[in-house]
Design a protein that fits this description.
Layout (H helix, E strand, L loop, with lengths): L21 H7 L3 H14 L3 E3 L5 H7 L21 H11 L4 H11 L12 H8 L3 H14 L9 H6 L9 H10 L1 H5 L3 H8 L3 H12 L21 E6 L2 E6 L6 E3 L1 H7 L6 H38 L1 H6 L9 H8 L3 H8 L3 E4 L2 E4 L14 H13 L9 H9 L7 H10 L5 H4 L3
Helix pairs in contact: 1-14, 4-5, 5-7, 5-17, 6-7, 9-12, 11-12, 13-14, 16-17, 19-20
Length: 431
């Protein structure tokens, strides 16, 4: 029997915030190379952690520093990599007392800042994806903007500059006025024209311009790493016959609990201070090992679903991508969207067609963001699966396209339908 799709199949947006532990989310966001570094650091700091015997010996040969005297490189004197913008903001957000909902929405926002620190999604999309009101989305954005550096999270240059203006500055009012209404004139050096229009002296305008020039138009770039990174994929997708399979990269050190220290805890003559120390370390070790397991499981689940949803991408390349949102994946897997965001952030996957950033699997929908060919292919697919006795109208197709993250007008649907020589609904109806 042919399977039909209907308007009732459109998924409802998730409205509940399903938070995992802070530790699990922290580990989840790490790309594989940073995860390996974190594992080594945790082993140094926690005697209850030790490498499992299944860890390949060659991994240590390649990754551990030489044990030597004199100027030998040790983990203590290896300079820590400079944290990126995402790491900095998430660290600050985790310390902020803002509640679970704002933590989750804030995390989503952080992962949707471009390399210069600008927000690259609309407030309406944040609200829709996170299942909150637009008011709460704005509130979360304001929280991120206060975490610094000044100007971060702006939606345009004007907002970026205004976020950096010191309200206590003597030229504050004039500076704000220039940013709000006279940036174009400033760019053309029309100081005299501005002074006449605002009824101030040219010297006052010049002083305000000096303040504006001291502001950072790209606040995120201080965290940019200009070096080209060597990419180690977080997962590998292979094809066996007609099927695709995914393997999450867990080639780093595998951990287990140190039984010798656990046995010490069982001794009745152990003093209270040592017992408290070992219990704390044992709890931390268990949480860390569990966090790594959850990271593997979450990545596995997300990628297995992406293989199904983006099969055409794997078969035919980027032209086969369909619009897909993180909220759709989260809804299907019963995860919160911030969990999917962390799973996708800074991760790379090796496919038979090359190595791609995991976020490539999530092309955003909307006019101007999805190619005409993609929209036409989706319209054709929808029509091919409709019930002939009750074909979809153009408005029905508009609503169904939203399921794939594509927001277009009824007129656009009609235009593409006619271009593909698909007749209107009343001519497609068959009893």
């Amino acid at each position: 029997m042919k399977e039909y799709i209907s308007l009732g199949m459109i998924p409802r947006l998730a409205t509940s915030i399903n938070q995992s532990t802070v530790k699990s989310l922290d580990v989840l966001q790490l790309p594989v190379q940073q995860l390996w570094s974190r594992v080594m650091n945790e082993m140094q700091q926690n005697p209850l952690l030790e490498p499992d015997e299944s860890t390949p010996e060659e991994w240590y040969i390649k990754n551990l520093p030489p044990a030597d005297t004199g100027d030998a490189l040790t983990w203590d004197n290896v300079p820590a990599p400079r944290p990126g913008l995402v790491d900095h903001l998430l660290s600050e957000l985790n310390l902020a007392d803002v509640g679970q909902t704002m933590q989750a929405v804030g995390t989503y926002i952080v992962y949707h800042l471009d390399e210069n620190g600008y927000l690259d999604v609309e407030i309406s999309e944040i609200a829709r994806e996170c299942g909150v009101s637009a008011r709460d989305a704005v509130k979360a954005l304001q929280i991120i903007q206060k975490l610094g550096p000044p100007g971060i999270g702006a939606r345009n240059l004007k907002e970026c500059l205004l976020l950096q203006v010191d309200p206590s500055h003597s030229q504050h009012a004039l500076v704000v006025q220039l940013i709000n209404h006279h940036l174009d004139d400033l760019a053309r050096g029309r100081i005299r024209k501005i002074a006449r229009r605002l009824d101030v002296t040219e010297e006052q305008v010049a002083a305000a311009v000096k303040v504006i020039r001291s502001l950072e138009p790209k606040p995120g770039r201080r965290y940019n790493n200009t070096a080209v990174p060597f990419i180690i994929p977080d997962a590998v997708i292979t094809k066996s016959g007609k099927d695709y399979q995914v393997v999450v990269n867990n080639a780093g050190p595998r951990l287990r609990l140190n039984e010798r220290y656990i046995s010490l805890l069982k001794k009745p003559d152990l003093d209270d201070a040592a017992r408290s120390f070992l219990r704390d370390k044992l709890d931390a070790a268990r949480v860390f090992i569990k966090s790594i397991e959850r990271r593997q499981q979450t990545l596995q689940r997300v990628l297995e679903l992406l293989i199904v949803l983006q099969r055409d991408f794997l078969d035919f390349g980027p032209a086969g991508l369909i619009p897909l949102t993180m909220n759709q994946v989260a809804h299907t897997l019963d995860l919160h969207v911030s969990t999917v965001s962390r799973a996708a952030a800074h991760k790379y996957v090796q496919t038979p067609r090359g190595i791609y950033a995991l976020k490539v699997f999530f092309p955003r929908g909307g006019d101007g963001e999805v190619s005409a060919d993609t929209i036409q292919e989706k319209i054709k697919a929808i029509v091919s699966r409709e019930n002939p006795a009750s074909p979809f109208s153009d408005e029905n197709i508009v609503q169904l396209l939203k399921q794939y993250g594509i927001s277009v007008s009824r007129r656009t649907v009609a235009k593409y339908r006619k271009k593909m020589q698909i007749p209107p609904a009343f001519k497609r109806r068959h009893k």
